[in-house]
């Protein structure tokens, strides 16, 4: 169902003082789970008519005038004194709250303007494996992306364990030594944050978390090693037998030796 298929339009060319909607407002609104959503309905020349908000999927009346007609107190209409704006506020929205909402005016015939609300679950993602092995003295580059949700998600913070990572912005033309820790966050088609740490030390090992303002975080475990092969650290050295295997081999060797001695002794007696 499209927005235009479920609305009755009245424009500024309406006769006399008949109410009309202001169309220069966002009508396809996207928010993230937990971030308060606002649907802005503006009605000009309302006169003695009333504005209501209806949830389309079940035709539930949410508000009428400035009064709320639902037990779900997350829904509320905001209308400044003598304003033409009738804004439906939805606190702590969940994905199930997504759908079409109608702003209605009790004219004859009834006027209605539809708004599409999209509620998405925004999650951050750190590129690469969950466990990262890097050598002492080399550089670490972590990239965190957030591709869902509107562009008002704020920014991204980086943590090592429970401690926020502090960094200092340095201009490219500054004649100073570049800091060991650098952070760059930018919007393109998505929110991207890059954490770079140069000249790694063993103490740089730990859990690094990318924490967006309005989305689920993501993390990666960083292991700073002194030249050991990561596979050896993860899976053990395939050429090195376990203590249990050594014990079994020793017993077999001892058994074979005793069997050989026994056979030699019997042959000598014969």
Tell me about this structure.
This protein has two domains: 20-120, Sandwich (Immunoglobulin-like); 124-170 and 178-225, Immunoglobulin-like (Sandwich). It has helices at 230-235, 243-269; strands spanning 20-21, 28-32, 37-44, 51-55, 60-64, 67-68, 75-78, 85-90, 99-105, 111-120, 125-126, 131-135, 140-146, 156-160, 163-164, 181-187, 191-197, 206-212, 218-225. The model is unreliable at 4-15 and 231-250 (pLDDT under 50). It is built from two helices and 19 strands. It starts with 19 loop residues before the first strand and ends with a helix. The chain is mainly beta and 270 residues long. The strands form four sheets. The chain has a six-stranded mixed sheet, with no helix packed on it. A five-stranded mixed sheet has the order 12-19-18-14-15, with no helix packed on it.
Largest sheet: 6 strands, mixed
Task: Please tell me the CATH architecture of the largest domain by its name.
Answer: Sandwich
**CATH superfamily heading of the largest domain:** Immunoglobulins
Largest beta sheet: what is the strand line-up?
A: 2-10-9-4-5-6
Mean pLDDT: 80
Rg? 34 Å
Distance between the termini: 102 Å
Number of helices: 2
The structural class is mainly beta
Q: What is the highest CATH level, the class of the largest domain?
A: Mainly Beta
Provide the succession of SSEs.
EEEEEEEEEEEEEEEEEEEHH
Question: What amount of the residues lies in strands?
Answer: 35-45%
Number of strands: 19
As a percent range, the share of helical residues equals: 10-25%
């Amino acid at each position: 169902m499209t927005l235009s298929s479920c609305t009755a339009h009245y424009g500024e060319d309406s006769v006399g003082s008949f109410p009309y909607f202001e169309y220069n407002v966002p009508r396809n609104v996207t928010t993230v789970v937990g971030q308060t959503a606002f649907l802005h309905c503006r009605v000009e020349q309302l006169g003695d008519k009333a504005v209501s908000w209806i949830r389309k999927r079940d035709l539930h009346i949410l508000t009428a005038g400035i009064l709320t007609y639902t037990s779900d107190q997350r829904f509320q209409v905001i209308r400044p004194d003598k304003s033409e704006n009738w804004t439906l506020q939805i606190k702590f929205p969940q994905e199930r709250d997504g759908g079409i909402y109608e702003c209605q005016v009790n004219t004859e015939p009834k006027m209605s303007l539809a708004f599409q609300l999209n509620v998405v679950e925004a999650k951050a993602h750190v590129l690469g494996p969950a466990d990262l092995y890097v050598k002492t003295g080399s550089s670490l580059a972590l990239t965190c992306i957030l591709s869902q949700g509107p562009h008002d998600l704020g920014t991204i913070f980086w943590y090592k364990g429970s401690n926020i990572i502090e960094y200092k912005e340095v201009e490219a033309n500054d004649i100073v030594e570049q800091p060991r820790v650098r952070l760059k966050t930018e919007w393109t088609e998505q929110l991207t944050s890059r954490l770079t740490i140069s000249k790694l030390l063993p103490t740089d090992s730990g859990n690094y978390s990318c924490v967006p303002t309005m989305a689920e975080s993501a993390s990666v475990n960083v292991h700073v090693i002194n030249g050991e092969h990561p596979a050896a650290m993860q899976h053990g050295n395939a050429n090195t037998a376990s203590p249990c295997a050594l014990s079994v081999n020793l017993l077999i060797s001892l058994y074979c030796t005793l069997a050989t001695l026994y056979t030699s002794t019997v042959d000598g007696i014969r």
